[in-house]
Amino acid sequence: MIGDPALLDILEAPGPLDVETVIARCVEQKGRLVEADEFDTGARQLLNLGHTIGHGVEACSGYAISHGKAVAIGMVLITRAAVHFGLCPAAVLPRLQALLEAYRLPQSTEYSAQALYTKTLSDKKRSGDALSLVVPTAWGESRLHSVPVASLLSWIEKGLQA
Fold it and tell me: 43 partner at 20 to 30 Å CA-CA among 49, 52, 69, 131?
């Protein structure tokens, strides 16, 4: 979702998954981002798609929900919010949900927006009164979007709306 729509096409394709190809593409993409941003101050942060809200889900669950499942939930919530705020085409959300469903990953949480917000306030991507969110802008494309910490609750609320 952060910059390789062809990889998403591979994941969506019917039939057996070529796991080696998927892993190789993921390692290649991560390697490019880390090499280009050694100190995690720019493009490398794209690797955090779904993590801000996902970490809130993990913390609210007392870490009973695994990191990967929490990030999947976070991806759906941030995508739904991005659609609401006009930063992402509406067609991206159901496609992401179908892909996560195909791989049996969760897409929702019972935790309240306030509970998630409280847990996300200590996120490492926070810089003073702003937080850098990774926001999908198209299928397989994302960008960094700085939001005031005070606006994060609104993002989470929009993400939770079904």
Answer: 69
